[in-house]
Every structure is written in structure tokens, then in C-alpha cells.
Amino acid sequence: MPVDDCHVRLAVEQDLDAIVALWKEFMKHQTSIEPRFKVRADGGQYFRTWAADALKSPRRTLFVAQSSSGELVGYTLLNVAGSIPYYEPQEFGYVQDAFVLEPFRGKGIGWKLTQAALAWFKEQGLAYAMLHVLDKNERGVAFWRQVGFDGYVHNPRLELI
pLDDT tens-digit profile of 126-158? Predict the structure, then answer.
């Protein structure tokens, strides 16, 4: 499917079931890349509440990618995040989730979702955006670099138990 056959729009409440289904696929994808990435058994329930709240919050939003057949094939969940009080600027854009179903990857849909996300961050008056991507997610790391994100902070992890 070329990018022209896909429309990116703000999510609405009627999209929640499909967004939760996409999130579950995203979590499967993440755990297949990095086994240390763990999701609670009831995580979908919590995510649904979080996503529903994002639809009503001025500090969070959700964009979805909808195919010409009406199927939701991707989403991105965004937050206005706060910095530690002694850093400037005090707020920044945070890409909490960004996911496109496997059959639709490499067709420009992630790019369209990202452009909508960056435009929303700019509308909020934010100076920069950040995100986390698994080190082992080579395709994701390459995508975000291509968009213009660069290495800023490395978040090492040490297992304690």
C-alpha cells in the first residue's frame, strides 16, 4: 500500500479497540526483539485507560494511520513531558509509542505518523522531542535516525534480580 492510500488523523474514542489491538501487536514485536522487555498480563487494560485519557488530555494525543479500506494499520501516542526543574526547556515532546503493522512497514506510513507528531509538538510550542527505541531494534533505530533524531542519552540497564 503506497502512503497515498493511507490517511493519518487524530484518534477518536471509537478507535480504542483497534488501537489496543495495535498496541498488543507492538508489545509482541518489542518482546520478540528484546526478551527483557516485559508487559504485564493485564497491560492491555491499563493501556486502554491510558489511551482513552490521552484522547481527552491537552497534554497527550494519539494519531492513527487508516488504510483506504478503513483498517487502522498504525498509531503514535504522544505526551508533553516535563524536565527536571533545573533543566531548560521545562517541557518537551515525548513519543511514547509509534507502531505500524508489519505488512504496512516501509511504505511511508511511519513517516506520515511522525510528521503529524512533530507538527503537534510544534503546535504545543515545544522546542524538541525525544523517544526511546530498543537498542536491538535496528530497523527502528535506523528509521528514527532518518527522521532526524540523534543519539543524546544512552540508557543502560543492569539486571538486579
Answer: 999 999 999 999 999 999 999 999 988 878 888
DSSP designation for 20: H
Count of beta carbons in the 10 Å neighbourhood of residue 38 = 10
d(CA 60, CA 54): 5
Q: In this structure, what C-alpha cell is assigned to residue 62? A: 494519539
- The verdict on residue 37 lying in a domain is yes
Asked, for residue 152, whether it belongs to a domain, the answer is: no
Query: Is 10 in contact with 63 (CB distance < 8 Å)?
Result: yes
How many domains does the chain divide into? 1
Question: In sequence order, which ranges of 73-151 are alpha helices (DSSP H)?
Answer: 109-123, 138-147
- What is the per-residue pLDDT across 64-92, written as a single tens digit (0 to 9) for each? 999 999 999 999 999 999 988 898 888 99
- Residue 79 included in any domain: yes
Using alpha carbons, list the distances in angstroms from residue 79 to 63, 124, 152, 161. Answer: 12, 10, 19, 31
From CA 49, how far away is CA 2, in angstroms rounded?
32
**Does some domain include residue 153?**
no
Q: Give the gyration radius of the chain's Cα atoms.
A: 16
Task: Give the domain range for residue 131.
Answer: 3-147
Instruction: Kindly report the CATH number assigned to the domain that includes residue 42.
Output: 3.40.630.30
**Number of residues assigned to the chain:** 161
